[in-house]
Amino acid sequence: IRSREEIVATLDKENRNRGMSFDVEMLKYCGRYARVLKRVERIIDESTGRMLDLKNECLVLENVICDGDFHRFCPRGMYPFWREIWLRKVGE
Prior knowledge:
Layout: H1 4-8, E1 16-17, E2 20-21, E3 36-39, E4 42-44, E5 51-53, E6 59-61
């Protein structure tokens, strides 16, 4: 996972990259190693129940979860979504 500074350089003023937000919960993983678990192409919008096709790449990383520290201690343990640009291949 790239450094905080490298990731921030890819974000707009709303902390988004092509619509995907980079959340404060993700900061603790910056500079660490993580294996790509899978590519996400579709998600369910929880507010409507509709299936959404994602237009841009989105990845989830193995053992990288939101632990709720900044979200009222939410117990869900969800995987945050990552852009490929926020990651670096081992050896790069």
